[in-house]
Amino acid sequence: MSLWFAIVLGIVQGLTEFLPISSTAHLRIVPALLGQHDPGAAYTAVLQLGTLVAVLVYFARDVFVDLPRSLFTDPRSPGGRMVLYLLVATIPIGLAGVLLEDFIVGDARSLWVVSATLIGVGVAMAIIDARARNARVLADLTLVDAVLIGAAQALALVPGVSRSGATICCALVLGLRRTEAARFSFLMSIPAVAGAGVFKMKDAVNELGADAITPLVAGTIAAGITGYLSIAWLMRFLGTRRLVGFSAYRVALGVLLVALLATHTLSPFAGV
How far apart are CA 82 and CA 102, in angstroms? Predict the structure, then answer.
């Protein structure tokens, strides 16, 4: 993989990981449009380690101070329960990743699948956001809520769904405020992304060959920098705005992709 392409993919990963528009969809579409080889799901998982660093830096106080303090001083406090909820919410995506690995790295990477999930989730997002109560805070979260949001996160293993999009939408259905939904979604990504990145590191290196380290490092750094900027922007945005713009973008991109596929401008597995 050329260095410039690795950096492009890193920037795409960082910008789209936290916005509810699906980073995996964009990492499938961009190589196809540029006529480049799709580096695969393993490379995507490793790139996410860059965005993991972005989450850890942005939410450093939560991760390294407030949540550990709450857990050790009073496990039944909202902060103490939050640690448990974050761990429990990770279980569904871990199980799905193992049980459905062949589908995730195979048929699910079809651009027809990507276009369908972009459009379908985009429409659902618009409906859910329009009806959101936007009332509950993270202190109101229950174990059942965490399990349901975790199940939504598992859906994002299919390219085009969007991990942040699925989890934020589920949290909105459960009544959480938009900023609170995004906060839980981003914190919940920590164990899932860390596990996937470490687990897939060997596969990514094997797929890229002898020159794997340089593009992996360059892409991961680019993802980390742009990921941090993306988080900071989205948290401010959701304080006063709704998700309708993201919904419209998803549907428009999905429709464009359908048109390219229907006219055979792109093949369903272009670049793979």
Answer: 32
